[in-house]
Design a protein that fits this description.
72% of the residues lie in helices and 0% in strands. It is mostly helical.
C-alpha cells in the first residue's frame, strides 16, 4: 500500500491506466438482454397457453397485453442496439 493520501492515489490511477472493463462495457450486452426479454414476453404473450388460460379474467387481461407490447418494444430495441453494436465492431476492426 502506498502512504499517499487517497486523492493522490486516485489521480495516479487515472494517469495512463485505462479503466478496467466489465461485461457491461461489451456492446453486445444490451442487445442480448433486450432480445432475451423479447423472447420471454413473446412466449408468455402468445405461445404459453397455461399463462394465457390462467389470466383470462377481465382484471388480469392487462398482463397478456403487457407481454405482447413488451415483446414488440424489447424486440425492436434489441434489433436496433444489435445493429449499433455490429456497426461499432465493424468500425473498430477497420481502425
Amino acid at each position: 500500500m502506498s502512504d499517499a493520501p487517497p486523492e493522490e492515489q486516485d489521480a495516479s490511477l487515472d494517469e495512463g491506466d485505462e479503466h478496467q472493463r466489465t461485461p457491461f462495457d461489451n456492446p453486445f450486452f444490451l442487445p442480448v438482454v433486450l432480445l432475451g426479454f423479447a423472447l420471454w414476453m413473446g412466449y408468455d404473450g402468445w405461445l404459453n397457453s397455461e399463462f394465457r388460460d390462467a389470466k383470462l379474467g377481465a382484471d388480469e387481461q392487462w398482463k397478456i397485453a403487457f407481454n405482447q407490447w413488451g415483446f414488440a418494444v424489447c424486440g425492436l430495441l434489441g434489433v436496433w442496439t444489435l445493429l449499433r453494436a455490429l456497426r461499432e465492431r465493424a468500425a473498430a476492426r477497420r481502425g
